[in-house]
């Protein structure tokens, strides 16, 4: 979730960015703190302001965003000044370490984006049952945590708020031998 701000904020939209293309592996170990994961997200899979998703995202996302505005936001987001998807088309996430347990963890995650790597702390919960694992991470971070600068126009009179909200759910099952 990315929110608008600035003196001209009423001319913009809060944005809900979604994807169901996150893929990767979880190397589940005992103890759980030795577990590692690697995920990749193709940036071209990002969908901006899907009407059905916005309708369930809360009061900040009630208003439908016109298709032309969704297309422009996506183009700006993937462009060279924000995610620079042409330079690195895949977001990479790798666990450097994991602490806590048995269901609540703090992961140090290496984020590969824009040809750079940054390490961020990610709180997550995990449930393991019958060979399946469910992971949920919900947290806030700043654009600078990822080496990004928030998009702005009109000398910053309309801009994306520096803080963004991340919510990720992963359902995985044990690979068959």
Explain this structure to me?
- With 177 residues, the protein is mainly β.
- It has two helices and eleven strands; from the N terminus they run E-E-E-E-E-H-H-E-E-E-E-E-E.
- The strands form two sheets. Strands 1, 3, 4, 6, 7, 8, 9, 10 and 11 form a nine-stranded antiparallel β-sheet that branches. A two-stranded antiparallel ribbon has the order 2-5.
Number of strands: 11
Low-confidence stretches: none
Percent of residues in helices comes to: under 10%
* Major β-sheet annotation: 9 strands, antiparallel
Molecular shape: globular
**What oligomeric arrangement do these chains adopt?**
single chain
CA-to-CA gap between the ends? 38 Å
Offer a quick outline of the entry.
With 177 residues, this protein is mainly β. It contains two helices and eleven strands; from the N terminus they run E-E-E-E-E-H-H-E-E-E-E-E-E.
Q: What would the keywords be for this entry?
A:
mainly beta; nine-stranded antiparallel sheet; 2 helices; 11 strands
Furnish the topology, listing elements before pairings.
Layout (H helix, E strand, L loop, with lengths): L1 E4 L11 E2 L4 E5 L8 E7 L4 E2 L2 H4 L12 H12 L11 E11 L3 E10 L2 E14 L2 E11 L9 E2 L4 E16 L4
Antiparallel strand pairs: 1-11, 2-5, 3-4, 4-6, 6-7, 7-8, 8-9, 9-11, 10-11
